[in-house]
Amino acid sequence: MTTSSRIEWTEQTWNPTIGCTKLSAGCKHCYAETLAKRLQAMGLDAYRQGFRLKLLPERLDEPRQRKKPTIYFVNSMSDLFHERIPDDFLDSVMAVIRDTPQHRYQILTKRHERLRSYFAKRPVPGNVWLGVSVENRRHGVPRIDALRHIPAKIRFLSCEPLLEDLGELDLSGIHWVIVGGESGAKARPMHPDWARAIRTQCEDQGATFFFKQWGGWGADGKRRSKKANGRELDGRQWNGMPETVASVVV
Questions:
Q1: Which domain, by its residues, includes 72?
Q2: Which of 45, 169, 181, 217 is the most exposed place for a label (fewest CB within 10 A)?
């Protein structure tokens, strides 16, 4: 089902699959897993098996029912490029995307190798924004190069939860970078200088910067609610969005 999103950089979520398995450091306190267990306890049928991976073909046509141009985040409750999702199901998702050119679709994955191999044999729909998670140097940074070589109109990074200083980044071919801290009871803190370093590199290399949230820890290093910490970095909000038409760099 599609639902309005509380995610600051999108409008609606569309989950043709739900559930996932942990892959890297950013998965440790997965918000989707926590929410899935809550929905399971509430008795929602789709979450009867909790966070176990499940294909939901009955949801495929939902974007076709919406005529108003909408930005969709695809699979907020899963990873579309999970190794156990068949290529033919991915083909069905892409067919819906191609059939609804009035919408834009944001697809974020930690499985960069599957992402690259899938689109090595298929064109990327023109209304798809492709992104990879970049939470740390070990797991996240290698994903950037895989993304850079895929000819999507918009390529983006989600550095959330940002777990450490990412060091020097090559942002060539990257149009948009989202940065945020971790939320939840077990959130790991994000140092302000880590976010500032990414912002500076975006400015120097021509990528658009978006600061999503501090999460469970504020800029002052104190633990408090996400809402109390706010979304300001150095006294202002950074709400940059990429241009809808961007040059393709491969």
A1: 2-229
A2: 45
